[in-house]
């Protein structure tokens, strides 16, 4: 990341992702659904109650029987508590709420808890990371473990630490989730991308967050 991009990310008056955070704060207090309930009615001031939440997701959900991503957690609250329809992946509203929640963990270390329930899903995510796939027969690890720091098509290959999602990418001119970025990678490998919210994506996200444990949350980050 260039000095200019880093400066944009670190300046709240210049970081475009903060527009989604502000919108998410409004949505947090809006009563919706058949229950006529707002996020704040259960969780109070999100600036306090959501501190550290993004740093712990994906997290195991007993009712679902598997880990859920932060986006999925938000939609579970909508359907179960607010009796409202789930928000579509990559919709402005879901990105805004996710950015608002993630922003409250900015500066905190990633703390992914892996117990006996979560271990099989972590192992599945690790397997996906190391599995060759697509017409180019590439694995995530070949770029992000073996060749990070080198250049691919004029861009520096990163280590793939998901510390800043949802991120504002200059290429997208908008905010996007980690799963959007993973789909971009799969398309680049000429592999069939999984659907948004697919178990494979959540398992891979769990592995990537575990792999980055101890690193600092930067959300909403800015990337090229």
Structure write-up:
By secondary structure, the chain is mainly α. The protein folds into two domains: 3-103, Cytochrome Bc1 Complex, Chain D, domain 2, CATH 1.10.760; 119-223, Cytochrome c-like domain (Cytochrome Bc1 Complex, Chain D, domain 2). 42% of the residues lie in helices and 8% in strands. It has ten helices and seven strands. The protein has helices spanning 3-10, 17-28, 39-43, 46-49, 70-80, 92-103, 119-130, 140-144, 178-188, 199-211; strands at 59-61, 66-68, 151-152, 155-156, 167-169, 174-176, 222-223. A three-stranded mixed beta sheet has the order 6-5-7. The protein has a two-stranded antiparallel sheet with strand order 1-2. Strands 3-4 form a two-stranded antiparallel sheet. Strand 3 and strand 4 (155-156) form a beta hairpin. Helix 5 packs across helix 6 and helix 7 (119-130) packs across helix 10. The model has no long low-confidence stretch (mean pLDDT 96).
Write the layout of secondary structure elements.
Layout: H1 3-10, H2 17-28, H3 39-43, H4 46-49, E1 59-61, E2 66-68, H5 70-80, H6 92-103, H7 119-130, H8 140-144, E3 151-152, E4 155-156, E5 167-169, E6 174-176, H9 178-188, H10 199-211, E7 222-223
Parallel strand pairs: 5-7
Antiparallel strand pairs: 1-2, 3-4, 5-6
Helix pairs in contact: 2-6, 5-6, 7-10
């Amino acid at each position: 990341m260039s000095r200019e991009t880093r400066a944009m990310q670190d300046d709240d008056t210049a970081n475009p992702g903060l527009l989604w955070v502000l919108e998410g704060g409004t949505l947090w207090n809006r009563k919706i659904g058949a229950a006529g309930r707002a996020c704040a009615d259960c969780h109070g001031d999100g600036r306090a109650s959501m501190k550290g939440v993004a740093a712990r997701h994906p997290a195991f959900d007993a009712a679902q029987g598997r880990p859920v991503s932060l986006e999925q957690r938000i939609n579970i609250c909508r359907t179960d508590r607010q009796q409202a329809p789930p928000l579509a992946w990559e919709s402005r509203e879901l990105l805004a709420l996710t950015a608002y929640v993630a922003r409250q963990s900015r500066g905190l270390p990633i703390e992914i808890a892996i117990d006996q329930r979560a271990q099989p899903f972590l192992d599945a995510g690790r397997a996906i990371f190391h599995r060759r796939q697509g017409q180019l027969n590439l694995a995530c690890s070949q770029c992000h473990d073996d060749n990070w720091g080198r250049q691919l098509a004029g861009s520096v290959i990163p280590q793939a630490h998901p510390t800043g999602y949802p991120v504002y990418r200059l290429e997208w001119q908008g905010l996007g989730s980690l799963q959007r970025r993973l789909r971009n990678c799969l398309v680049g490998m000429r592999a069939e991308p999984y659907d948004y919210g697919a178990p494979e994506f959540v398992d891979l996200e769990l592995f990537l967050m575990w792999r980055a444990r101890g690193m600092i949350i930067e959300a909403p980050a800015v990337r090229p």
